[in-house]
Amino acid sequence: MLSAILCVSPAAAQTQLSAVCGVTGNATAPASITYDPFSPAGLSEVTIPLVLRRNRGLLTGRTNEVSLVLTAPSGTPPLQVTYNGYRVLYAEGATAGRPRSLNSKDNGVGAAGEIRYDFGNLFASDLSTPLNLRVTVPPGTDLSAGEPIVFDMLYICSGEGGMLSVPTPVRDTGSVRINVNTVSALQAYYAGSALDFGEVGDLTSATVLAAPDRYTTSSANTLRVRSSGPFEVRMRSQNDFRLTYPGGNPGDAAQTIRYSARFLGQEVSSNTAFGTRVCARAGVGGEAGTLPLRATLLEGGTTKTPAPNYTDTISITFTPIVTAASATSCAGL
């Protein structure tokens, strides 16, 4: 599951002084809002109250009216943002001419698909009343945990008291952000067959060591991971990377056959060797989450206690983490 904090970049602590009209924005949604990228439900119509702060000029200059839309830079996940039931988030370069006008110019006729606000007279508050945006995140959206999704604001405004108006849309870059923090957003499974060396009872160790590739399992056997953020990986063998038979003693060399496993680019032949690895996000679709697992035989079986089957169990644990100071791209290692 993901816990999501949705916000826009904070408005200035004080009203900005400017010769031209303009606005900054501030919005925050409750931290309790959660989004699970693997849930079929997604995140439906979360309310984010947007508060605008107007610019002022010297003496009586002030921003009076504003009309704005939000734009999504190329590559932004397909979120939906509406205001008063109409979409106000648009793809870059596809705002259909919005923002088109101010209420004082068209009496509100063209307001659908725009966010409009009238701040009022000289003595009115520089802060707008909350403007409730509704945000929907479709199921399976590939959000990067811990990284903000950034929207731009495109606005026009009118100035009074000597302040200049802005009749042509002006862009406020990166003014709206959605920050996602990973609590738990990872799925993993094994895709392949058993790591089987076949019959080894008639093989000497010299034979095995002379042709290691022949006694290495296929790299087509993989772990598949889907994650919205980085994750930790641990690997452990039940018998410390020794095959033994049911009832056999893993501490008795005559009852075990040693092998190694290659995973995340590391050859591992003991439980103390692997430690904890940190991998970069695999993506919600698992684009960077194919992790090959191979095993290589290190001994033959001619000197071992005869038994129908020698086996071992490897356990690999994946743990999602919120952030990582350093993470490796683990795909294909």
What does this structure look like?
With 333 residues, the chain is mainly β. The protein has 2 domains: 2-182, no CATH class; 186-320, Sandwich (Immunoglobulin-like). The protein has 3 helices and 21 strands. It has helices at residues 103-106, 205-210, 271-274; strands spanning 2-8, 23-27, 34-35, 43-54, 62-72, 80-83, 86-87, 89-91, 115-118, 131-137, 149-160, 166-182, 186-191, 222-227, 231-237, 242-244, 256-263, 266-268, 276-279, 290-297, 314-320. The strands form 4 sheets. Strands 1, 3, 5, 8, 9, 11 and 12 form a 7-stranded mixed β-sheet that branches. Strands 13, 14, 16, 17, 18 and 20 form a 6-stranded antiparallel β-sheet that branches. Strand 6 and strand 7 form a beta hairpin. The longest helix has 6 residues, at 205-210. It is rod-shaped, with a radius of gyration of 30 Å. It starts with a strand and ends in a 13-residue tail after the last strand. Mean pLDDT is 88; it is low at 1-13. This is Spore coat protein U domain-containing protein.
